[in-house]
Automatic annotation (TrEMBL):
One Pfam family linked to the record: DUF4880
InterPro entries to which the protein is assigned, alphabetical: FecR (IPR006860), FecR_N (IPR032623), Ferrdict_sens_TM (IPR012373)
Domain FecR protein positions: 114-209
Designated name of the protein: FecR domain-containing protein
Domain (FecR N-terminal) ranges: 16-56
Lineage: Bacteria, Pseudomonadati, Pseudomonadota, Gammaproteobacteria, Pseudomonadales
Amino acid sequence: MLSRRHEPHLDHQALEEAADWLIRMSEGELSDSERGEWEYWKASTPERSRAWARAQLLQTKLGGLPPSLAMSALDRPSSPERRAALGKLAMILAILPAGWGSWKLAESQQWSADYRTAIGQQRELTLADGSKITLNTDTAIDVRFDANQRLIHLREGEILVQTAPDISPLARPFLVSTRHGRMQALGTRFTVRELQPRTHLAVLEGAVKVELADNRQTSPLIVNAGQRTDFSSHTFGQLSVADRYVGAWSQGMLMADKMRLADFVEELTRYRRGFVRLDPALADLRISGAYPISDSQRTLNMLAQTYPILVSGHLNGYWVMLSPA
């Protein structure tokens, strides 16, 4: 479930003005005078600046303006269709999850990474040493093999690693790094998921040695097969039993075993563009089953057929609401 955090309420007028600028930009390049007007508007008040930040996040999440709204932009300047489009877009901006406000847009750009995946895409790589890396949705990595090490830097997202013995006579270590620390594979298969506050590690085979990025005084932690942990750059979390379905995404499936619907929806949104809103009354509904991540609409339909859930879609499927049936 996309949750909201506390932040100042945004003025509806500022949101509608941001929606208007977003629609105008969808029509084509702004003229020099229009761009100056937009820059002045954006910087004129904190409310407008925050409203435009919401508009940018929306556009990035959807990969562009929804077609049903973009078409209405052709009916300028004051047709009923355009006014309706502005109202819909302002409403979406108003209820965007506030947690996105902390998302640094520049850091989320993956274009300079060696390898990357788009939202909803998985990709398998075979590296020069024979090791295999599977990238999950919205993931970016860099690969740095040299005379001393085999290093994978996970910029963002999630990977499944299957290491191979080093073919060089130097027996170079196989390492995976994130902003929080460095993991050394000890002949192993494991998953790593990089989240903003912590890195999550689950070991399926072998073992992994973990060192923290900003706390070298703490001894490295050995995580064995069947175990999982998470860590920040300063502290380790507790060792616990790894979820047996932790790598199911590499087979195109999202597995649930008496899983809270709120947690399931939060996972599902990683694999689709657009928004899924969950009625709080359904948050603690427990669900089980195997669901395809390549067809999120089919997954939502499967939920509706099995559980007392009503699925309603808007804006050509960009906006989905789950409510009690």
